[in-house]
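Thread: "does anyone have the structure for this chain?"

Original post by V.I.:
We have the sequence but no experimental structure in hand. Need at least a predicted one for the grant figures.
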Amino acid sequence: MDERLVRRAQEGDQEAFRSLVLASHARLLRVAQGVLRDPHVAEDAVQQALLDIWRDIRRLRDASKFEGWSYKLVLRVCYAEAKRMPRWVPESLIPAAAEPRVGDVFGVVVDRDQLSRGFQHLSTDHRAVIVLRYLMDLSPEQVAEALDIPRKTVYSRLGRAMDALRSALEAESRNPTAMPVRPEAAL
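Reply from O.Q.:
Generated one for you, tokens below.
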């Protein structure tokens, strides 16, 4: 992110802020959709986060930290939205991920579907750390900054999240009609 653009937005330059929004919207939406699993709620969360960014951008001390700071703000909104959301989201509302072109298209679809079902049974904390680390390809240090947690906590939360995902997938493979109860307490 261009630090000069951030500084101009901090000074009230609406055109600079508009450029920041254009540059940030897609990545913030990707994070929100990954965490919330509902594209409509995710879009609302991003809009609220963008309002928060506009309102609070003058408080950002280091313009080079804008990207991590914006993740922190969108995640704060996502956590609030997740508390208000129903536990179940119809699969039809979950956007299809960009699929790689491979020989076994059916297998890719089945794998994506299994992962999607398993992912929805993770806690918001677990979804957030997986989305930031693997979907957004942030370093553990960047994830720690965005989540406002110690770097070692990122590693432990990632480990627990992956264990929970494996457990959900294994439970489904044993009994395809029933998924385990959402492990909110297993943080």
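V.I.: this helps a lot. Residues 71 and 87 are 24 Å apart (CA to CA).
O.Q.: and Residues 97-101, 180-187 have pLDDT under 50 and may be disordered.
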